[in-house]
Amino acid sequence: QVQLVESGGGLVQAGGSLRLSCSVSGLTISNYRMAWFRQAPGKERDFVAGVEWSGRYKYYGDSVKGRFTISRDNAKNLVFLQMNSLQPEDTAVYYCAATSGYGHIMSLSQYGHWGQGTQVNVSS
User: Fold this and answer.
1) Which site among 12, 28, 76, 114 is 20 to 30 Å from 97 CA-CA?
2) What is the per-residue pLDDT for 52?
3) Average pLDDT of 87-114?
4) Measured between alpha carbons, how far is 110 from 20 in angstroms, rounded to an integer?
5) Closest CA to 94 of 121, 71, 67
6) Taking the CB of residue 3, how many other CB atoms lie within 10 A of it?
7) What is the per-residue pLDDT across 9-51, written as a single tens digit (0 to 9) for each?
8) 47, 108 in Cβ contact below 8 A?
9) Measured between alpha carbons, how far is 24 from 117 in angstroms, rounded to an integer?
10) How far is the CA of 17 from the CAs of 10, 80, 82, 102, in angstroms?
11) pLDDT at residue 55, rounded to an integer
12) Tell me, what's the pLDDT at 78?
């Protein structure tokens, strides 16, 4: 009965901002490392951002460093991705994921729980 539901995607102009949310049910996210991945048509699913259990340590893909911020609210079982200075190359489906493992936070294969994705379109 684990469910991750992303929201907040949409169409935005280049230079604009969006805030994605991931609402989790069926598990307590304080026991999981959380991450965002994205996938554009014809591209691999790439790591965007990850956050350790407490939220103290955060990690970002090279292409989004300085522009995106991941955060978590363990009390509410929520994860967020604040996206600023959006560019057309950020256009993708964005997925929320959770792992109970201890592998490298960027390693896609360890994530056992995934949301359905939310579409982000950035126009030029």
Assistant:
1) 12
2) 97
3) 97
4) 22
5) 121
6) 12
7) 999 999 999 999 999 999 999 999 999 999 999 999 999 999 9
8) yes
9) 13
10) 10, 13, 8, 32
11) 95
12) 98
The distance between the two most distant Cα atoms of the chain, rounded to a whole number of Å, is 40
Q: Are 58 and 64 in contact (CB under 8 A)?
A: no
How far, in whole angstroms, is CA 53 from its chain's centroid? 15
pLDDT at position 2, please? 97
Q: Token pair of 58, please?
A: 């955060």
Which amino acid does the sequence have at 34?
M
Looking up tokens 């939220």 gives 55
CA angle 37, 42, 46 (to 5 degrees): 20
Q: 118-123 and 10-13: which strand pairing?
A: parallel
- The rounded mean pLDDT for the chain is 97
